[in-house]
Specification:
This protein has 184 residues and is mainly α. 73% of the residues lie in helices and 0% in strands. The longest helix is centred in the N-terminal third of the chain and has 23 residues. The two termini are 35 Å apart.
């Protein structure tokens, strides 16, 4: 991934905290696709993901005062995006909303995956369905590792567990995926 052009994240945050709206726009534009990707992968619905992007950035702006300059902003934002998305999904399940049912119908293959064009549509759907059968904690770490290319340490910060737990969850997720794909 290319490094952002222009001011770095910490510089933008300092400007935002002083009331610079242009800096806020730059930060949102820089991370909007990333935040949307995280939200969509968790809620599996484009409309819900669009709504979540706004909520995530609102939470981010409200929390900027607690952000520690010098730490990795991207990991901090990942944590907000992941936790906000997971909370929304949990609420939807509790309310037995239609969004969960619609998500299964509207889910599509991820075309940003490097080998996506090499796989058949059927194979992609088969893999996506198998991933959906994984327990949530395994599915989230698998997504962050494979799709977002984060390190175990970054994932640990985002989901709030030790790196060894991330390693264990990834191992179990891969093992379960192999089993699920054999059974199909």
């Amino acid at each position: 991934m290319m490094e952002p052009v222009g001011p770095d994240d910490n510089e933008l945050i300092a400007r935002i905290l002083k009331g610079d709206r242009l800096a806020a726009n730059v930060l949102v534009e820089r991370y909007q696709k990333l935040v949307y990707s995280i939200a969509y992968r968790i809620v599996h619905n484009h409309a819900d993901a669009d709504d979540l992007v706004q909520s995530i950035f609102m939470r981010m702006f409200r929390g900027l005062g607690s952000y520690v300059p010098g730490t990795e902003f991207k990991s901090w934002l990942y944590a907000i995006a992941t936790n906000t998305s997971l909370n929304v999904r949990k609420q939807a399940k509790r309310q037995k909303s239609i969004a969960v049912k619609a998500a299964a119908l509207t889910q599509t293959a991820d075309h940003t995956h490097p080998g996506a064009d090499l796989m058949s549509e059927e194979a992609r759907h088969r893999i996506e369905r198998a991933i959906e059968k994984l327990p949530e904690e395994q599915r989230v770490v698998l997504h962050l590792r494979l799709r977002e290319d984060l390190t175990h340490e970054q994932i640990a910060k985002i989901v709030g567990v030790p790196p060894a737990t991330v390693t264990s969850r990834l191992f179990l997720a891969r093992k379960k995926l192999v089993q699920l794909l054999r059974d199909v």
